Amino acid sequence: MQMIVYVFIFVDLALALFEDPAVIPMPIWGTSLVEMICLIVFTARLFHYAKVIPRIRFWKDPKNICIIVIILVRLSLIDIIIYGSLKSTGYNAVRWSRVLRPLLLVNVTEGRQLRRAFRSIRNALPQILYVFFLFMFSMLLFSLMALKLFGKRNLFTVDGEPYFTNFLDIVFDLYVLVTTANSPDVMMPAYNYNSFFALFFILYILINTYIFMSVFLAVVYNNYKKHLKEEVRQLVKSKRQKMLRAFAVLQQPGSGEELVVSQENWNQLVHLVQPDISNAHRELLWSISDDCNKSHIGKLAFVQLPDLLNIQVITMKSRPHPLHIWFPLLYDSSVSRLSENAVVFYRAFVYIYDLIILVNAIFIGLDEENPLIAYAEWAFLALYLLEILLKLYTWEPRAFFAKHQFWNWFDSVIIVAALVGAIVNLCIKSSDGYTSRQILDIVLILRVLRLIRVVDSIKRFRTIINTLIKIGPTILTFGQLILVVYYIFAMVGMELFKEKVKYLEADSTDPYKDSCGTPLLRGTTFAKNNYCKNNFNNVVSSFILLLELTVVNQWHDILSASAVSHVSARLFFVFFHIVVVIIIINIFVAFILEAFFVEYTVEKSDLQTSLEKKIEELELSVDKYKQLSCPFFCLRAQQSVHGFKAVWLYNNLFHLFFSGYKTVDGLLQRMFEADLSLEDADDMDDPNFSNITFDSV
Amino acid sequence: MQMIVYVFIFVDLALALFEDPAVIPMPIWGTSLVEMICLIVFTARLFHYAKVIPRIRFWKDPKNICIIVIILVRLSLIDIIIYGSLKSTGYNAVRWSRVLRPLLLVNVTEGRQLRRAFRSIRNALPQILYVFFLFMFSMLLFSLMALKLFGKRNLFTVDGEPYFTNFLDIVFDLYVLVTTANSPDVMMPAYNYNSFFALFFILYILINTYIFMSVFLAVVYNNYKKHLKEEVRQLVKSKRQKMLRAFAVLQQPGSGEELVVSQENWNQLVHLVQPDISNAHRELLWSISDDCNKSHIGKLAFVQLPDLLNIQVITMKSRPHPLHIWFPLLYDSSVSRLSENAVVFYRAFVYIYDLIILVNAIFIGLDEENPLIAYAEWAFLALYLLEILLKLYTWEPRAFFAKHQFWNWFDSVIIVAALVGAIVNLCIKSSDGYTSRQILDIVLILRVLRLIRVVDSIKRFRTIINTLIKIGPTILTFGQLILVVYYIFAMVGMELFKEKVKYLEADSTDPYKDSCGTPLLRGTTFAKNNYCKNNFNNVVSSFILLLELTVVNQWHDILSASAVSHVSARLFFVFFHIVVVIIIINIFVAFILEAFFVEYTVEKSDLQTSLEKKIEELELSVDKYKQLSCPFFCLRAQQSVHGFKAVWLYNNLFHLFFSGYKTVDGLLQRMFEADLSLEDADDMDDPNFSNITFDSV
């Protein structure tokens, strides 16, 4: 069901590719029909949702109202009818309802993370606005000063226009200076006139670019954190209350006065909540909850359950190697064992392959059409394949390709893809005598990607990369956020500025070919720099143009030219800059900062510590056992997962790896746990429970 | 003594203005003589310092060794002699010892804050380097990919040069792209060829510009904070140990078993430590330390003393207004009282003047040569003067111009300066019939600065501004840091690139006037944009050029042209970018972030709370009294200081205002107090004391 809704949202958004101004033109009845179908699906989904949840809650939820309004507006067809009729009579019509499309993505029930991001922006808005007003005030003061200082001096810009004589132009120029896009240019006439005037611009940049932009980051960061903390607090509170209710259902009188839950009930509950949990993992969790081996646990230990389940423990079944089963004599022979110990497991092996990768990097840099280099490439491919095969020979294949073995997967996929690509390329070449550029491109990219592997063998790099991989899902949330905002701005931009600038191919016969198809741009920087393709003529180029505006450099040239009309383009950009650069990019930066701080500073929680201790205890007891008689594959499996603690539970052939948290929510909860525990203790409904929590803290 | 050392360091650094390449040329024997004198002063200072402190500590301190080496190198004259002799024989000589000059500023005993900043950078360096290597690695991979993808496609840049064919050029272009300085340009040839290639650049910008730059900020921020915390911890620890030793000296047996310090001794100590403390302030502090009125305090309360003294309590003597003394009848008349109550104190007065300022802003925007506007300006000046006089009429002058009354000072200085400027301008104009541009500039700037006043009447703006004012001293430390780094880079840049580019006045007859005096730059963007003044021909223009490089936009144009020689210029900039933009600017951003977080989140300490409570208690008792009979000037003084809590101690005519911390160290200590208190309790030498601290936490 979720997938279907997402597919239809995607189709709905993708319509922009086919609607006028289109990448791939389609008749208007076609796009309208598809849009209708999408809207019907969304309506059906909404009806279904309304049936499932209570009526009062449905009407109280602002997101449902929002969806209904959007669907009604778009279903009413007013927009399409007006557009169609105006279009047919030759008028320039505006389809403003397209702006509403991405809002559906935000309001669908599944977009929880995205809504959270929007909510946190909304909550930070008043604070941001105050700083923004102060920033605007400072900008206006500087503009006034610039007008008074430079306006009467008869200075001229490089283009021969009067310098700093119009107040509104000055304000805009100084706004651009905040983004550093016109950095030395705007200063040069004054600086050439008198070196002391550079002071004015230095002061301006210091205050408005450096200090105010940092203050924006501080305000956005602080509000984002505060809001997140409040949300997590609510989450933790409701979770604990639910667990207390569950306890009330399962409780039974214990040995003393206290009420307890038996191991049996607990096991059943865990099975219900997480059907795929392994026995070893469950037993480990129970042994932590039931510290004194009483085979029942109290209220406090019971409430911990969701936190325990939230800690990721990777369970790995330790099976004998298939070759060991099929060819036991060969696989256990002393030569084979030597190769395992001497080659695959030890540092030398890693170093040799790092060296091979470096040599490979140099070879990639050389001309690939030289036959010698082409042959060397095959040799490298063979070496990489050999490495994977050697690893597979010593590690149990299912352990090697376990879900969490990111780098093994990465290696194998890249190498196999490169092999396939190279062979396809060879086939095409030998049959046609002609190299397909597309396939060659892919092969070349795969070759370069292979080099990333080096990173994994340096420990310091690995921690940074691991942090980045961990925040991957949240970066995706920001991707959605950016998509929504870009889509809205692209729609508005296309309606306002489409076809103002044209990109003409080299063989075009247009008289204004060199000035982007319009006489207005003749001789401008825009035309000279070949920027003609930066326009709002279709969705794809609009998105790329917006990305360039996000990066900010040269945006005043790009925008003033691609829009040709001045004032609306300026307003468009200033608004875009505030929303995307000042707010969203700062939230993005704030999130990365927070993620790295957590990685650097947050200590392990009590639960994590006790879990680790338990695992270590078990490992200790195993260590003793291992020295007696450990089959070779146990040693292997232990070394295969670096960075994690491996545990060898010999009796049930399971490995347990401890590795951080499963979800972003879990991480966030840990981040704020220190601040939360005390507050929650006070908030708790049950007075007894509050005491217990308090003691445990 | 301190002042003298600073003056000579300043003179030493300022020598760069007079040495070749000079702003104001001076003969070589002149600058050498001044340099000699400076060096002799530094040596004398060092001898003096060596006599005062123990010999072992002197030789253990790396900064002393550093100073000795610098002075020896520079005193040996080798540098000057080689330079002079080579110069006289016509060779191009390099004076490399000038690079050492700013290091003296760092190593002088007084530069503690600056040294701390350098130490924190040094400690953060390994972490930064790891991220930097990873960043370089990612950049090299992308460059390799770009070479493979675009190198064989026969694309050309706007200048007609082959696009992405040389690996090292690609690396440099992509490094520039990280700084966003060549943002769309570097992409355009590939994008024009095929829209899909935009993906390559989008991915590159996302990873290297957004993610890696944020990671740099995170690493710098985190290390900076960690290091600062450790330094503050050491400071707090040594402070407490010193206080314990002081207690051991002053202690005497108390009522029970515990040892105490009597009020008499405590008073003496406070008088010794802070001779200018007011009696009211001292009594307030004592009443907080001695909670139970026992007229002696225990160890714990004694140790608090430095923290108590660190909390800023503004003491204001409440004197009767001079007019009240001189013309009591007139000043106390009912008309006079009406004016006080109805005009100056109430909101209406503030609103009216805000409105006047806004109208004034519009008038400033208009043409000042119009006689009507010029007359209006006199009217505004009169209005502002009237405001200050009215305020002085109602407030006691010494209270109005107290040290902490920032805005009163600001207003008065600006208005009086504007008045003086306007009168001088009028005199010159009426005598010569000619307006001096310089004086007019100053008058105009003062007029605009007057508008800043509006900010103070909006509460939200005031808090932001107050935070910025508070971090002012630390921004000065960063200013010194930047000065040191800029100076070194300017010296190196001047030796490498001087006279490569010349700025020629409009009336010059040089054949290459339009291309900055060199045929190499004919037709380049650099020459076309009038960038000729961006050169390394003297210290001032070098500093401004370095500032432009810090802002980063257009730097590749600026640098490649102003240096003309390519490779050294590239290395120069990359190094400059790493040091200034990646490290120092990030520390600057980190500090502003931290300051705002403290402002937003850190709660008051126990001591602060008890101090405030005490002040409030006193105020409560006064409030009752005030209703009986409060002289009018008490009401006045209380309302004069907004933002602070005012206390009226009627019996001794003192006002106490509570307002945050005195020093940056105090603020820092508060920031980390929560984390420090427990650790310190464990570290304490005295076991009894450790318990006491722990209880109090």
UniProtKB/TrEMBL annotation, chains A, B:
Superkingdom of the source species: Eukaryota
Domain Ion transport: start-end pairs: 2-226, 348-598
Keyword Thylakoid on entry: no
Membrane-spanning segments: 26-44, 65-86, 128-151, 163-184, 196-221, 344-366, 372-394, 406-426, 467-489, 571-598
Location of the protein in the cell: Membrane
Membrane topology reported for the UniProt record: Multi-pass membrane protein
Signal peptide: 1-16
Main location: membrane
Cellular component, GO annotation: membrane
MF terms in GO: monoatomic ion channel activity
Keywords assigned by UniProt, alphabetized: Membrane, Signal, Transmembrane, Transmembrane helix
Pfam family, one: Ion_trans
Family matches, as SUPFAM superfamilies: Voltage-gated potassium channels
Keyword check for Cell wall biogenesis/degradation: no
Stored PANTHER family: TWO PORE CHANNEL 3, TWO-PORE CALCIUM CHANNEL 3
Protein name per its UniProtKB record: Ion transport domain-containing protein
Gene: tpcn3
